[in-house]
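DM from R.C. (forwarded with permission)

"hey, sorry to bug you on a friday — could you get me a structure for this? deadline for the figure draft is monday and I only need the backbone to look sensible"
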Amino acid sequence: MRFGTPLSLTKRLLALLITLAVVLTAGEVALRLLAPFPDYTSETIHSFPDQYHPILGYAGVPNLETWFILPDFKHKIVNNSRGFRDRDRSYDKGDRKRIIVLGDSTAWGWGVEAEERFSDIMEKRLPGWEVINLAQAGYSTDQELLVLETEGVKYRPDIVILLFDRNDVVEGNNARIIDGIQPKPFFVDEGSALVLKNTPVPCDSDYWMKKALLARTYGGPGETPPSFWANLLTSSHLYNWITFRLAHPIWAGSGATNIQPDVSMLEKNMALTKKLLKRIDNLCGEHGARFVITDIPSEYSPLLRGFCRQENILYIDLEPCLKGRLRPVVHRKVGHWTPYGHRVVAAAMIECLREHGFVK
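My reply, with the result:
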């Protein structure tokens, strides 16, 4: 068997390398133009502080202006005078119509600039409407109810949108503390009514002083500076897209698990949450607002969908708009929506609100 001369083998190998280089370059250029993957930021880690709140447990720091940096992203945080990541708004709405957004870190905009969030995009695309974001990272349905009672209704909203996350049930509404140390308010179902407990929330001044200091190094100290080759790879959209898709196949869902859940256990976990959502719905009705629940897909989605149907609450399912996208809708590591993900969600919400006559 003849394998050819060394010179011909060298030419073939060179031709193969050139072809591979052309293909990789074309793939890199195509992804940057058509489906850019979010770049990594520096190895620096920098978080942001909260402050004690007697009713909510904790809240955003008023007039805070700082940087939030994790390996996946870097963006600025600017809080208004009431501690929310939004511009200052007057309680007097005038002739404008208003939407209040409640939620946790996803609605708050974890990983994106404020103007890149679905709430801000909706405001730009809905003339005559204000979309006020009252979300706070880490909040669950009970705290979102308290935000609406103490702050949200003052803006006289026409629509209240709650972005529902499975963490609201798993880590929030049925919990007494957060992260094993941070006290929070909670509700107890006493049959005829929900009763608020643990307020004023206990305040440990030493804890809050330490928390303010630790906020500057979220998750610990910064990582070891990467090598030249590591920097080269992580700056490549093609490399990031391929490695991301190995972990998150393009045909996979947007958050729902494939494992068959224990429905009876889910129902038990969801019982308190349903009562909290019903109380929010009643509160909206008392103030002339329409309540909308937008669902981040999870094992609780079927129960939430059934609850909304029973209570005649508009339910927006995000599974169809998030699933199977060529461009990543979530960040590589933290799992929160990318700017593209927020744009997709904003479009889906506006379409559904118009379809059901909530906005014109």
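R.C.: lifesaver. The radius of gyration is 24 Å.
me: no worries. The CA atoms of residues 112 and 339 lie 6 Å apart.
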